Amino acid sequence: MKRSILLVLLAACSRNPHPASVPSGGGNVIAITHVNVIPMTSDTVLGDMTVIVRGERIEAIGRAGRTAVPAGARVIDGRGRYLIPGLVDAHIHLSNRADIDSVVAAVLLAKGVTTAIELGGMGLPGDSARLQLRTAINAGHRPGPTLYIARAQANDSTMTREGGMRRVEQDHAAGYDLMKVYNRLSVEGYRGITLRAHQLGMPVVGHVVRPAGLEATLGSGQRGIVHMEEFLYQYFGFRSSDTLTAQDAKLDTAVVSYFARITAEAGTYVTPTFVTYQAMIAHAEDLDRELARPEVRYIPATLYNAAWIREKNERSLMFAHPRRLHHLRAGLHYQRLLLQAMHREGVPLLVGTDAPVAGAVPGFSVHHELQNLVELGLSPYEALSAGTRNAAAYLRKDDFGTVEAGRRADLLLLSSNPLDDIRNTRAIAGVMARGRWFDEGALAALLARSAR
Ligand SMILES: [Zn+2]
Q1: Which of 160, 212, 309, 341 is the most buried (most CB within 10 A)?
Q2: How far is the CA of 190 from the CAs of 167, 182, 219, in angstroms?
Q3: 93 C-alpha vs ligand 1 centroid, how far in Å?
Q4: What pLDDT shows up at residue 438?
Q5: Neighbours of ion ligand 1 (CB under 5 A)
């Protein structure tokens, strides 16, 4: 998210947050019966199962005929339906403004996203507003995904090693979950951050720190690189905004397999975030077409007017130049080759969208990214892994990402099998978040309240 957008947001007028709308009874027992479970522990479907949820946790899973439904449990008939773990968006941004963030959270949930990794607020004051939203969601006072939050990107070119260590200590003490590093961070600041974060067990994720370079980023223990295009920028000095030079000539395809191999060997997670890169191209090609997409009405008005409309849309303004648009397309082609090579090498992949930056509608973009991954050669199971269990491993959490007893009751009920066709993740019949059940009517109401 660019700074100019943030300043406009700062000046924009405020409006009341949406009223809370979370089903009550977080301590109740719910049984989903006769359902096909895709547990995401292996590429399999378990037919005719019953899943018992007690409070926020999955208590038991078993064959429907042999699993007793506790007395008093609410029963949800899962016949003919498919139960998968709730989806994870590993790359979102919140604003610290309740009117924006409550809508983003509600729309994510309505589209089956039960966990989201927030990579640094949009720079607005009041950092702790995101932590308060996290608390309110966890307590069931607001509808939304479980959030893991980075305070703000570390991007100070003069940061010392001590400064980097202090920054990690402050963020950790304040209750943030991970550190986000950005392009201009100094090498010494990066060393301080990665060292102290390692000591405190905080994941470091983000861009390639340009002064350190790609190889040092991979060697630092940085848990993840967000945006596939990061591989192009630092290494090749690729700049899609350049209107003069032949940028695509810089993109040496002989390097693709090297990138994939060193990333796999480092065990670094990659969040390609193709939807946002594709949106830059789409917004430059035909902004009216893109803004007319029905899901765009779920972008809060303040944000829409600050960053999506033609006069404020940085992407459509910058990439209207044919030379720049040509560079973008060349960059996307290269990134697709890179994704395919990384998949072959076994690089762990994540589904992330950068929502709600221009072009990425919360929730809707997750389903689009899953489809992107399948179109590039992942099986539906591999793509779903990127959108569920891989994210738990990325954060070194063992309480979400699969349908197993003991896990958080974050579940997505689908009317058709996503292993047959990944687009079936959109056939949502219900969402459970921390044991709270949202049926189709509740999800429709969440969306209706969130529309601009
Ligand atoms: Zn981002």
Answers
A1: 212
A2: 11, 9, 12
A3: 6
A4: 98
A5: 354
